[in-house]
Write a structure and sequence with these properties.
The protein is mostly helical and 377 residues long. The chain is built from 14 helices and no strands.
């Protein structure tokens, strides 16, 4: 909105408005606005959640130290989503389809998380949507996004090829051409693409959700991951940087820099109240939305594989759950004292704050490593 108003409409009349044409300025402004909105609305939102008795049910088999957190206001993800969407709407070039895909993913996965949180609060237990229901809704959202991306691909606005870390000339295409022109086999051409979206988007959404178990853990890691994705969006949409780093240039990706900056700023503002001892939790409405939108941005800028490093801690947390479940079903024994992994370290006697800060450090190291791979190819 501001891009159209100040740059396209008023810039010819007042030259200082030229700054609204720069992605860097709009990203900085959007990030600050997102942070300010969340910090300013935080006390009011927390008070409202307490008045509505929107408290977080605590996992019954979780660490004993967590039981005192029962009743802490939840659904803080609503504040994050609002704080991220408002600056995005104000500062991006809204004719860019990438922006709408990203915003739709954020709002869509937030809606799934909201339904899960609402059922937990209504029942007074840490049981909302069943695992099958949650996955079904997440997959449905992924399919909508996938067909949207295929339409953009048909119009020449999106590529189904992806970048591979450490290999500059290896860009496999996930969309298989129809075999021998047989229309009956053509639907098979979409299978690799949708399967990959399932792994990236749904996997990312659930990974952040599983990590959201300690005060500030998921939020701090998201700030790191969001900052790294902001850099990747900028270099992918910048002609000179993309050429220097030998990336496939994506002109539309530059506007995603503002979306990622807004998301990072909103989560940073939320961390002000979510740091230990947390005054509010983000809930599934926040974790599912943040993870889903992170995966969608990676798909849009063709850095799906690099997301494994950027969100490395999220990946390890998810693997710990899968290993624990598989081991218990196969051998009747647990590998970890408790999963996800952050609870394992709590059981070992680590203080909650120590676990969170050390996981942040690990996340930062992985994100920095991911950015170095841009030139190590």
């Amino acid at each position: 909105m501001f891009y159209w108003l100040f740059y396209e409409l008023l810039f010819p009349l007042f030259s200082p408005f030229r700054v609204f044409g720069y992605v860097t300025f709009r990203t900085f402004a959007a990030s600050l606005l997102a942070f300010a909105v969340v910090v300013a609305l935080g006390p009011w939102f927390i008070r409202k959640m307490r008045e509505l008795e929107v408290g977080q049910p605590i996992r019954e088999d979780g660490p004993e130290s967590h039981h005192r957190k029962a009743g802490t206001p939840s659904m803080g993800g609503l504040l994050i989503v609002f704080g991220a969407l408002l600056p995005t709407l104000l500062f991006t070039h809204l004719a860019n389809p990438y922006v709408w895909v990203a915003m739709f993913s954020l709002a869509g996965y937030a809606a799934i998380g909201f339904a899960d949180d609402y059922l937990k609060i209504r029942r007074g237990r840490n049981l909302g949507l069943t695992g099958r229901q949650k996955i079904l809704f997440q997959v449905a959202m992924m399919l909508v996004l996938g067909f949207w991306l295929l339409e953009l691909h048909r119009r020449g606005l999106y590529s189904t090829a992806m970048n591979v870390p450490f290999f500059k000339n290896f860009r496999p295409d996930l969309l298989i051409d129809s075999w021998l022109g047989n229309p009956w086999t053509y639907p098979l051409a979409f299978l690799p693409f949708f399967f990959f979206l399932l792994l990236v988007i749904v996997g990312s959404s659930n990974a952040v959700n599983l990590t959201d178990g300690l005060d500030g853990l998921a939020a701090g890691l998201m700030i790191i991951a969001g900052g790294a994705m902001t850099v990747l969006c900028y270099v992918s949409g910048h002609a000179q940087f993309a050429r220097y780093l030998e990336l496939a240039r994506l002109p539309g990706a530059s506007e995603l820099t503002i979306f990622c900056g807004s998301l990072t700023g909103a989560v940073l503002g939320f961390l002000w109240y979510n740091a230990h001892p947390a005054e509010i939790f983000m809930g599934d409405v926040g974790s599912l939305a943040l993870g889903g939108s992170l995966g969608v941005v990676a798909v849009l800028i063709k850095q799906e594989l690099l997301l494994l490093f950027i969100g490395g801690v999220y990946v390890v947390e998810s693997l710990s759950v899968m290993i624990q479940v598989a081991s218990y079903k196969a051998r009747g024994k647990r590998v970890f004292l408790m999963s996800p992994l952050h609870h394992h370290f709590e059981k070992l006697g680590w203080d909650e704050t120590k676990v969170v800060v050390r996981f942040w450090i690990a996340g930062l190291v992985m994100a920095l490593f991911a950015l170095t791979t841009l030139k190590l190819r």
